[in-house]
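Folding problem:
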Amino acid sequence: MLGFLKSKLKSLFQEITTKELDEKSLSDVAERLRLALVESDVALPVALEIVDDVVAYLKGARVGRTESVYQVVLRSLRGTLYKMLTSVPQIDLVSEAKRWRQEGRVFTVMFVGPNGHGKTLTVAKVANLLLKNGLSVVLACSDTFRAGAEEQLEVHASRLGVKVIKHRYGADPAAVAYDAVSHASSKGLACVLIDTAGRLQTDKGLMDELRKIARVAKPALKVLVVDALTGNDAYDMAVKFNDAVGIDAAILTKVDADVKGGAAVSITAATRKPIIYFGTGQGYDDLRPFDARWLLDRILPPD
């Protein structure tokens, strides 16, 4: 898992033998590092930003007697990536939900993202997490267009023991979300999780629909759900969804698959919003809190 960048960088750094990082060696390192990052699904604008930061750190640096250029460059890259991944404000979803509950308000989370990226399963995983922390949940099926969407969400709801608010197919998705929030408020339920229809980031009509749902439901958080296998397109997806609805956080799914790791870096850089969870399997408990060190240990070679 996440080994592609690790192998690329190890091969690159092992070929660096100079003991002083002069202009020529820095230029070579910068170009090859950029290529390695792009091949590892880091979007080009993000790769350029990372490389510029690494080079700025390395300029004038000297290699100590007990270390190699490999260690110096790797340490710089790790520091740059760690800063990029952790410089955005972190969100503790469970703590936020409990705070809203104490204040007597319904904690509403709206999930957005492309079709096929695991959004509905992620909604169920988050519901499971909230339930395990003593918070009541209702699900809203604001995907009123995809055949089988309501049935899929109802299967998860039945397994978790929670209610689904739904309308007929073709109904207004914003009305479903509104009714779910009203239901939660009237029944004293703590949380509403809104599952929306998957859509391409280039579909203006569907993006307008997302804005309407957000305007009506007034979610506390708007969470982008993206497949870790998306590759370089993750950057453009994140930018477009953020421009459309102003996302607050992201969840990266399918991190258990053979991914390269660049999507996490690209999404954070594109939105300046945190990744809060990794989806690591098909079970409801397969939701891992974001940990930058855990991720970097898997995408970077050892020092």
In short: The chain has a mean pLDDT of 86.
